[in-house]
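Hi W., the (2S)-2-hydroxybutanedioic acid complex you wanted:
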Amino acid sequence: MFRKITTLVATAAVSAMILTGAAIADPVTIKFSHVVAENTPKGQMANKFKDLVAERLGGKVVVEVFPNSQLFGDNKVLEAMLLGDVQMGAPSLSKFSRYTKKLQIYDLPFLFKDMKAVDTFQQSEKGQELLTSLEKKGLVGLGYLHNGMKQLSSSKELHVPADANGLKFRIMTSEVLAAQFQAVNATPLKKPFSEVFTLLQTKAIDGQENTWSNIYSKKFFEVQPYITESNHGLLDYMVVTSKEFWYGLPDDVRTEVKKALDDAILFGNQVAAQKATDDRQKIVDSKRSQIITLDDAERAQWVEVMKPVWKKFEHEIGKDMIDAAYASNK
Ligand code: LMR
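Structure:
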């Protein structure tokens, strides 16, 4: 009897240690893995987070940042996170479809007219609700981070949808993005970010869609003679961690880490806004790629052919969600 009670007490003590985080490593290491260059909104945010944690949490927590797909590509990082091989990442919202269909909303073409509308929606109740859409899969959404609106780069001038007919475009792993390019009779190819430059350079693909900062930092503009300033879609991120890691941290540490992350995200969002203008200008100045702007009639054609994609995914995303996001444009 006595032995039984001793065993029970010991088991309870171990469980309590795990629950309070007392059994965690000292210092705690947060490996933050991402795929972009350091001189991008995400790269700068991650480095800022590392610095803030070092400043505020000294020897208790250490952040190690792995940029440029050094550790994991986006198609592997979430799996690695669930296995505990990496603790944080910030894949683009387009890369979560294996875990939830709800986030597909962010890929719908021409849903948000600008980043102000994106912000309004993300901070709304519905936008915040989407941060919890991964919990059943063991992941915790810690916050949104901006990159910006996507542009279409190509080996051919793209003014109207018919110009994209028959061309091959690299896309992220998203069915919505596939449908978007199929809507203009183009061929979408799901490929990792790390392969895009070579695919463009060797002409294995004709084009791709991305933000000004990604087109600039990964030198896509050097191998793409035309960029259509379409602002047709969004490329934003969700900073994620695993439930197991996050709730294994002691409460006070978790609170401080979250504060550092929130501050780093605010900084990253400022970088994103600045880079959308600055990196665009650097591409103009390079004269390597011609920027094509659309007049109202041309833009209306892209909207007309791509917008039916919304209906196709309404049953997975929810009409109320799409309506709320669209309403944020007002
Ligand atoms: C892409 O694959 O094009 C982007 O998700 C890269 C990134 O993280 O910005």
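The two ends are 70 Å apart (CA to CA).

W.
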